[in-house]
Amino acid sequence: MTKHYLKWELGLLGLVCVLWAPSPLALRAQAPRPQVKITGVPPAKPGGPVDMFRISGEVTGVQQPRDYAVVIYAFAGGQWFVQPYDYQPKTAINNGRFQTVTHGGSAYAALLVRASFDPDKTMQALPSEGGDIIAVHSVDGK
After folding, report:
1. Cβ partners under 8 Å of residue 80, min gap 6
2. What does pTM read for this prediction?
3. Contact (CB, 8 A) for 65 and 41
4. Could you give all domains of the chain from N- to C-terminal order, each with its CATH number?
5. Percent of the chain surpassing pLDDT 90
């Protein structure tokens, strides 16, 4: 093989690699979308000030978990109430998981939010994803 032919072959190989390499935009599109999922579902019990139940789940697709939090809501009496308390509405993410307690309800929701998010104490309907709300997941109590 001559030096000239080898240079041409390596040049062609480089061009092929550049053409087949995914663009930064394509790599970003392939990154997993942040998600939150309730895996430890509390019972469907009436809300009240005394009874508390464990709720837990997982968070995936976030690069820096400390930049995010999970906000839990319980549905009771026709509206969503932030959990576990209105003065303590955020649950930390540890190793891709979250857990806290909640008052009873017929359904439960977890919102993956930016750490700076200021949640409403009560809502008539769950919010949509967008802005500081990264992902929403809701389940019926078991």
Report:
1. 73, 74, 109, 122, 123, 124, 125, 126
2. 0.79
3. no
4. 1-30 (no CATH), 32-140 (2.60.40)
5. 74
